[in-house]
Design goal:
It is a single chain. By secondary structure, this protein is α/β, with parallel strands linked by helices. It has one domain: Aldolase class I (TIM Barrel), CATH 3.20.20.70. The chain is globular and about 45 Å long. It starts with a strand and ends with a helix. Bound molecules: 2-phosphoglycolic acid (PGA). 2-phosphoglycolic acid binds next to strand 8.
Length: 254
Amino acid sequence: MKKQFIAGNWKMNLTLEEARGLARKLCDGLAGFDAVDVGVFPSFVYLKDVCDIFSDSNVFVGAQNMSMEQCGAFTGEVSGAMLRDIGCTHVIIGHSERRTIYQETNSMINSKLKASLLNNLNPILCVGERQEERDADKTREVVEDQLSGGLLNLTSEEVKGLTIAYEPVWAIGTGKTATPEQANEVHAFIRNTMRSKYDDDTAQSIRIQYGGSVNAGNAKELLGQPEIDGALVGGASLDPNSFLDIVSDAASFS
Ligand code: PGA
């Protein structure tokens, strides 16, 4: 069994004091705990403070997005080197909110993935279909396209140990979760796609998180599925007790 990976995507929420408070509670609650990999993804402006709070812990801190460029005249952007410089180890790439609201394409996501690897950051690549695509029975096609475009020209060495988050767009922030069977089926498809693009070793080294309305009430059932290696949690990650409950559910499957 792989070590589960539970990530909290704080999105554009919290004040600085709230972000520090949440980080301190998680830091206390997870002291000495390493049965599960845990990461938090605060807003850019709180990253340094949160990195400092977790500096002596096992908890990873990462950004929700990054620039595909290395440095220079890119007003408003944040580079991988900057994230690394302040202590980040991870970055979320291609979240559906970036794809749909900010028109990020598979080719941009591919450039961001390459930039993250170049800067020694561990990416979480998000994929997932919209409701109308599921209704039209296009889930596999969409996910396959996101994987092919997102991972274009990446070698198996670069992809080894990658985290992929399967987040059906219709389940994000809606309270509608995929059933454990629905999620497991797409996870198995992602694993098989990685096996045919790369090899069995690479496919097995990849952790596939489920995301979309995961909470303390449904986590256990989802995480118990054989192809689910963790969760990317939005709303429920803002409440320390819910998030810690999800982490402890994951520990029984690590
Ligand atoms: P949610 O968000 O848990 O609030 O649905 C998940 C995500 O967007 O990563």
